[in-house]
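Margin note: ligand = molybdenum atom.
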Amino acid sequence: MLIKKSSDIKESEVTPESVYLNRRQILQATAVGAAGAIAGGLLPGSAFAGPAAAQEGRRLPDVVASPLSTDEEPHTWKQITTYNNFYEFGTSKEDPARNAHTLTTEPWTVAVDGLVGKPAEYSVDDLIKPSKLEERIYRFRCVEAWSAVIPWVGVPLRDVIERLEPEAGAKYVAFQTLYRPEEMRGQRSPVLEWPYVEGLRMDEAMHPLTLLVVGLYGRVLPNQNGAPIRLIVPWKYGFKSIKSIVRMSFVENQPPTSWNIANSREYGFYSNVNPQVDHPRWSQATERVLGAFFKKETPMFNGYADQVADLYEGMDLRRYK
Ligand SMILES: Nc1nc2c(c(=O)[nH]1)N[C@H]1C(S)=C(S)[C@@H](COP(=O)(O)O)O[C@H]1N2
Ligand SMILES: [Mo]
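Resulting structure:
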């Protein structure tokens, strides 16, 4: 992965989607055309029949480009908002785009509790202020072996945690998604234990790459992508990146996580992207990039090994999956 130096970046470089409607789209049109003939449009992100893109919400003010962005070209707004995983709105990849409009995200509060100096119910604005909003273009790798490149807008989780003043005994941060079956139709079925929960070890939560996300392509986050506030941990499989967060708890012991509760044989707590350790039912060595036909090799830690490998030094990553 190439990382730009901050001195090379101006605010005007923040990504409007139109900038990317060039080479990439031409490449994709070709790839999807070829794939459509073979796979009948069932390929992730293909242009064939499917839900409409999310409506564009409010533009977020004063977003600065981050030097931690990958130089890969992002997928389109339409791709990122029509091929999602969000079981609260259904189990198929098109369900969130069809069903997530029922979620109301205002008002919204995030409860902060546990071993922390400043527990309270925070509005999203109060939680992220006064950090400056950054655009971070990250590689994103799902456990189901597809991947995308996504221009998120958010603030480092680290800044937020520092302001909340965790106590020395806090070793993990636990996160919880909203539970509101009237608005989240998927929660009316027991496909997962509700509410969705996730967690990070404190050093993972404090890592500079870990982002609390409130936007996409410079605009407020669409519901299907986890509005109004979600986590992004780019070196871990996508399911660690919990959506529509309503609680952050500072705890001493490793917290339970949804996919581990659902199937502990297949999903561990760490869930770092690791091409050397297969999922029990499929290989993790390669990935299919959203909209592309050919698979490509998955790099260790999703390409972020230089930045995060030392978090796991001395750990057996086959055991701690
Ligand atoms: N609350 C909640 N968060 C969730 C999920 C979910 O079902 N519910 N799915 C996860 C999985 S498996 C993935 S791959 C990512 C998908 O994020 P995206 O739809 O924005 O690409 O969200 C993660 N966060
Ligand atoms: Mo996923």
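Residues 4-8, 20-42 have pLDDT under 50 and may be disordered.
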